């Protein structure tokens, strides 16, 4: 089987396994306030996704991703590719990519809030910093072993996952709007079904996008 289809098949199997485990756990726990059934969560997700309130949260999060993740990915990929082709540039940016790519930069979130408050600039900056350096480091490493196209796809995939993770973490801790804020607000009101629905609306699209990029990367790198 071609790597592209194998990766997508693994993704579907993985989602199916998680779904079955979720349903089994919900039956065993038998307490909807702790773990609601997947069917109820999916109905809730379908109901809230087009609502005006959730659309406002999703729009705010999407804007933060656009302003923060897009320039970070472009800069990280370009610098990573340049570092692979030039030893001088690699000497300049390599140390920063290695050190900051390994650092838990989420610890800087209180400083971002102190500098910019609960604003779009704060969220975009945090997303860019948290995703940019690991992507740059990954692109430099992969580009030395595989083609540039595969290295770029690898960086984009990593960026999508890290960017969404950064977005949700920032909105959990320091935001007044966004999908992460929606999830946390629902949890604070002990609305477990809405909380899980918000999680599904964030996690499932991220998995599908990352899996598609990985499938393309696997096919080209075969």
Task: Describe this entry's structure for a reader.
By secondary structure, the chain is mainly alpha-helical. The protein has one domain (41-221): MetI-like fold. It is 84% helix and 0% strand. The protein contains nine helices and no strands. The chain has helices at residues 3-29, 38-48, 52-85, 87-102, 109-116, 120-143, 148-173, 179-188, 192-221. Helix 1 (3-29) runs antiparallel to helix 9, helix 2 (38-48) packs across helix 9 (192-221) and helix 5 (109-116) packs across helix 6 (120-143). The mean pLDDT is 92.
Number of strands: 0
How big a fraction of the residues is strand? Answer: under 5%
Unreliable residue runs: none
How many helical stretches?
Answer: 9
Secondary-structure element sequence?
A: HHHHHHHHH
Radius of gyration: 19 Å
What is the CATH third-level topology name?
MetI-like fold
Q: Give the proportion of residues in helices.
A: over 70%
Average pLDDT taken over every residue: 92
| Main sheet makeup | none
> What's the structural domain tally?
1
Principal-axes shape call? globular
Report the span from N to C terminus: 12 Å
* Gross CATH architecture: Orthogonal Bundle
Helical/strand content category: mainly alpha
CATH classification, class level: Mainly Alpha
């Amino acid at each position: 089987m071609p790597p592209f289809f194998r990766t997508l098949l693994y993704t579907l199997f993985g989602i199916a396994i998680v779904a079955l485990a979720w349903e089994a756990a919900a039956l065993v726990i038998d307490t909807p306030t702790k773990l609601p059934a997947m069917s109820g969560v999916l109905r809730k997700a379908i109901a809230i996704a087009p609502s005006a309130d959730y659309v406002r949260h999703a729009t705010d999060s999407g804007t933060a991703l656009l302003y923060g993740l897009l320039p970070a990915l472009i800069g990280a990929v370009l610098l990573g590719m340049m570092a692979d082709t030039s030893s001088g540039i690699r000497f300049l940016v390599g140390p920063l990519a290695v050190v900051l790519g390994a650092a838990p930069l989420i610890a800087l979130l209180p400083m971002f809030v102190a500098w910019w408050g609960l604003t779009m600039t704060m969220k975009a900056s945090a997303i860019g910093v948290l995703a940019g350096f690991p992507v740059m480091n990954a692109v430099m490493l992969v580009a030395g072993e595989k083609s540039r196209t595969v290295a770029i796809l690898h960086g984009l995939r990593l960026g999508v996952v890290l960017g969404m993770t950064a977005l949700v973490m920032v909105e959990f801790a320091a935001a007044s709007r966004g999908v992460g804020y929606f999830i946390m607000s629902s949890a604070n009101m002990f609305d477990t079904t809405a909380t899980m629905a918000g999680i599904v609306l964030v996690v499932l699209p991220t998995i599908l996008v990352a899996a598609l990029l990985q499938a393309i990367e696997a096919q080209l790198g075969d």
